[in-house]
């Protein structure tokens, strides 16, 4: 009888070691279509008004090396290269960033192409599929909020924080407040089993990202 517990423990250890090389179980997964193909990427959209300027918010997200400080599940970020897009009327800059994400027992590093359009948007697209993610796209957008915004900052602008360089600048492109921040997140897991296991964690990830970003803004710029 003692043989059975040993076999059970051995099978459990083997499964743990082989987590990233599981066989194709797509036909059994609720995240796959009837023909066994992966379902479309999961898409999330968030909107929130922040009591800061477009420039302030843009600069936080454009600082890719700081992602582990406020992005959920991001444990490391390293900028591999940065280059301006030639003859681009929007002055966009592209970076290659190696990101490491980790949650539960999963840990994965991949290269993301980050395109920054000054004071308006930051888009990050995984350069290729990885053992964990089939696709992973994130877009942050920053737009002037309506003058009739119900956010308190629309009536009472915040006092300049210790890093508020824009406070001394004239009102202009990127220097108006409050700002409407929108986040579009789209991702699909390579293996349907990973999707099933991580559904609880990633179902609220876009809300967690906005909340963590808000806390980062408070840390850098002070309260609104």
Description:
With 224 residues, the protein is of the alpha+beta class. It is built from four helices and seven strands; from the N terminus they run αβαββββββαα. The chain has helices spanning 3-17, 54-62, 192-202, 205-221, and strands at residues 42-50, 74-84, 93-103, 106-117, 121-126, 133-144, 179-189. It has a seven-stranded antiparallel sheet. The longest helix has 17 residues, at 205-221. The chain is globular, with a radius of gyration of 21 Å.
Task: List the defining traits of the structure above.
224 residues; alpha+beta; seven-stranded antiparallel beta sheet; 4 helices; 7 strands
A few lines on this structure:
The protein is an alpha+beta fold and 224 residues long. It has helices at residues 3-17, 54-62, 192-202, 205-221, and strands at 42-50, 74-84, 93-103, 106-117, 121-126, 133-144, 179-189.
């Amino acid at each position: 009888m003692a043989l059975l517990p040993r076999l059970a423990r051995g099978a459990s250890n083997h499964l743990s070691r082989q987590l990233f090389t599981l066989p194709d179980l797509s036909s059994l997964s609720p995240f796959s279509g009837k023909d066994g193909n992966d379902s479309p990427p999961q898409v999330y959209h968030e909107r929130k008004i922040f009591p800061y300027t477009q420039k302030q918010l843009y600069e936080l997200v454009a600082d890719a090396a700081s992602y582990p400080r406020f992005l959920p599940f991001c444990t490391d970020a390293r900028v591999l290269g940065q280059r301006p897009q030639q003859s681009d009327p929007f002055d966009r800059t592209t970076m290659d960033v190696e990101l490491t994400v980790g949650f539960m027992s999963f840990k994965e590093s991949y290269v993301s192409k980050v395109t920054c359009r000054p004071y308006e948007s930051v888009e990050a697209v995984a350069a290729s599929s990885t053992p964990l993610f089939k696709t992973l796209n994130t877009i942050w957008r920053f737009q002037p909020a309506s003058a009739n915004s119900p956010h308190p900052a629309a009536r009472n602008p915040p006092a300049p924080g210790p890093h508020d360089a824009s406070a001394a600048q004239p009102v202009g492109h990127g220097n108006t407040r409050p700002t409407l921040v929108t986040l579009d997140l789209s991702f699909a897991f390579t293996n349907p089993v990973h999707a099933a296991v991580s559904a609880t964690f990633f179902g609220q990830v876009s809300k967690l990202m906005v909340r963590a970003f808000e806390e980062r803004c408070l840390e850098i710029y002070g309260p609104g």
